[in-house]
Amino acid sequence: MGGRGASSDFPQFVQDLPVPSLSVDNRASLEADISVEELEAALAQLNLGKAPGPNGFPLEYWRLVCRQVGQPMLDMFQEALEKR
Question: What does the alpha-carbon distance between residue 66 and residue 57 come to, in Å, rounded to a whole number?
């Protein structure tokens, strides 16, 4: 793929790429905390009848208890994201 000088052209190539930017509203939406409603919507989109995850709980269980454990689960996810 490239001979001599190819690596020196790479930064210019990357600089010239058209990179779209996010609107302020889109950026704020992406940076916002996940809501319990969003968690429920994500769980509703997953296919049932699959093997349980490493914790042994199937998707059906998480859908059933989402209202009770959703917020503590989201708090845990948020803390993990903040510590990365």
Answer: 13
* Residue 69 falls inside a structural domain: yes
pLDDT in tens, 23-38: 999 999 988 888 999 9
Which domain covers residue 26, as residue numbers? 6-82
Rg (alpha carbons) of the chain, rounded to whole number: 21
Phi, psi (degrees; rounded to nearest 5) at 32:
-70, 155
- Residues 30 and 82: their CA atoms lie apart, in Å, by 14
What Å distances lie between residue 46 and 62, 66, 80, 84, CA to CA?
11, 14, 23, 26
The model's pTM: 0.61
